[in-house]
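Thread: quick sanity check before group meeting

JM: Hey all, I'm pulling together slides for Thursday and realized we never actually wrote out the predicted structure for the chain we discussed last week. Dropping the sequence here so it's in one place. If anyone has concerns about the input, flag it before I start.
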Amino acid sequence: EGISPSEYDAFTAQLAETDEVLYLGDNTGEIVCDRILIEELVRRGKRVIFVARGAPTINDATLSDAVYVGLDRAATLITNGSDAPGTRLSDCSQEFLEAFGSAKLIISKGQGNFEGLSEVPGPIFFLFKVKCPVIAEEAGAQIGRIVLREQRAEKVSE
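JM (edit): ok, ran it. Output follows.
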């Protein structure tokens, strides 16, 4: 079972409305594939900011990993300033928080980022593989399924 057509349609509609994407990376091994998607976004006229982990954490991508695979040639690179698995806003740098707060579209990769941001309002699309029963229930998907899920909460106005 693949990504829900309705979620994909929502993603492409929101993507068409923005010229900038904040892309929260996940695993080091996946960032080569992330680069392919990011290069396609750039080809479509989008400016992409790729966010890596602030320090080595489990198998999450760091800034040096992103540079190693050439992401710096397609996107602006920043870190979230944190060594926590997933993204916990309370642990993140001011630079990241400013980028996150002003983002018109966020692609958030990985179950850890979903766990940390699923209650945060904003224009977020989570892209991850469901790995456990708790997340399967929350995401409304079976274990092993790839999910593209829109965060439907409204962004807090500043």
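AS: nice. The CA atoms of residues 130 and 141 lie 7 Å apart. The chain has six helices and six strands.
JM: adding both to the slides.
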